[in-house]
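Ticket #4471: structure export looks truncated?
Reporter: QA, pipeline team
Priority: medium

Steps to reproduce: submit the single chain below to the structure queue and open the exported record.
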Amino acid sequence: QVQLVESGGGLVQAGGSLRLSCAVSSSFFSINAIGWYRQAPGKQRGLVAAITRAGTTMYVDSVKGRFTISRDNARNTVYLQMNSLKPEDTAVYYCNKHPALKTDYWGQGTQVTVSS
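Actual output as written to the record:
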């Protein structure tokens, strides 16, 4: 069974930082590129950043230069370091394979709230 457990969210002031973690079941982790997604209130869930098995990364334009995705293969964990946070980054953040479908299994997510 797939395990996707997100953690590390919280409330932070604009300009602050947070580091999100995603614990992934080993079999899932070893065969997939992993992405971080987010869903703001009233909006659809969308990709924020992704990392391949080889470590190649990609980011959406709105987070380039502020967010860094990384993976620890020994711990089956993917991280999202978020710096210079903005109120528009407020959302529930999820991790999953990349690409992922709405109908795929999703974890509970972790709430990130950035106050102005």
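Status: closed, not a bug. The export was complete when the record was re-opened. Leaving a note from the reviewer for reference: Helices lie at 26-31.
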